[in-house]
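Attaching the record inline, Q. Sequence:
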Amino acid sequence: MLPPHVVNIADLRRAAERRLPRVVFDYIDGGAEDEVTLQENERAFRTVSFRPRNAVCVDRCELDTNVLGSRVSMPLLLAPCGFSRLVHPRGELAAARAAAKAGVGFTLSTMSGYRLEDVAHANPSGPLWYQLYLLGGRAVAEEVIERARLARFTALVITIDTATSGMRERDVRNGSNVLMSDNKLAMIPFLPRLLAHPRWLTSYLLDGGPSTFPNIVVPGRGPMCLQEARAALRHSAVTWKDLSWIREIWPGPIVVKGVLTRDDAAKALDKGAAAIIVSNHGGRQLDGAPAALRALPEVVETVNGRADVLMDGGIRRGSDVLKAICLGARAVLVGRAYMYGLGAAGEDGVSRALEILRADLTRTMALLGCASIAELNQSFVAPPSGQPAC
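Structure, as predicted:
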């Protein structure tokens, strides 16, 4: 149970930090190398000032919008987050249920600890998107694409910024590769740290510890193990040529995630992307990449209404969501914001994160003097600057 004083995402982060072992908390909290991009993602929002319409009475704020033809109750989807079952034994099932109750979209990572069919069952209302990595090669990808279609996932998210894994130094120092290995005896040196978090450790052991990825099924061998998947990711980078092949076998919309430049936005459009996600992978890949919010206007200008533009990275408050909308995003994806909730209290924690963001959105809209998400535009903000706004 979460105490009533958990009133913002920072509170959820502190609650997760108390409940989770350092190795698990740092996995969801950390970024690549010096974490410059991780910090810039959040800082960029502080450089955008609102320009409210005062002396306006807003009786009711309409937060709902359309994303790829699906109605969501607020302009927000849950981002794909791998290894969620490590954070909480119900992992993706808990997050998918919370998303359904809140009326927002959910994106399932290839690195899920649960079958995509079970996640679809947990979220009967959608929209449901599936993030595809080419782990195991094309034959494996073709099978999971067909499974996603039959399980009524409505869009494929293709992440293009993982030519190799980023250097996440917190994970290296903490020995996260040991925790995520198949050899449970290798955990013995880490037991003192894990025993300091008995609730998490008990639930982890009762769950059996996630050891395979049931949506990466290698013919003749079965689901790929954790260690094998981590190594295979280095050899599974998506190319523009791959997008052409995926377009041929997937009947629904394709979303390209990881776009930060005008050139990549144009290429994604040429390959038939129905939506583009402006993202630097939450600062977990290339340290020194621009903050997603700073890259957003360039991509919006390039797309020019030919596809939905979304963004993720650094969103911790509803006001951050609205700043992204004002700068041209159709909606945003949140990852850490809900993962903190998952780590703190499972499904209830994810629901609390979404409730916090909804309350933020409603309050900020009223203070802006704007009654509908559809009415927001760049006139409501002063664009990103080099210095934090006062």
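The domain at 9-376 is CATH 3.20.20.70 (TIM Barrel). The first helix runs from residue 9 to 19.

More tomorrow.
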